[in-house]
Amino acid sequence: ATRYPDKILFELKDVAQILCISYEFVRLLVNNNTIASKNIGKRKLVHRGELARLITEGVNNVSKKN
Fold this sequence. Notes:
The protein is α+β, with helices and mostly antiparallel strands.
């Protein structure tokens, strides 16, 4: 992330590293729409605005959406 200060979209592994949580947990949060993501091809990417929201608000409110 520090190599691209103007980066707009982040891969899930980058989100996990920035938030200090596991990749699997990030994937779970994306899959149940707790973390908003964009699909680019086969990849899911997180917008930096969403990443900023997660840094500010945290990811405490995890609920399974059926």
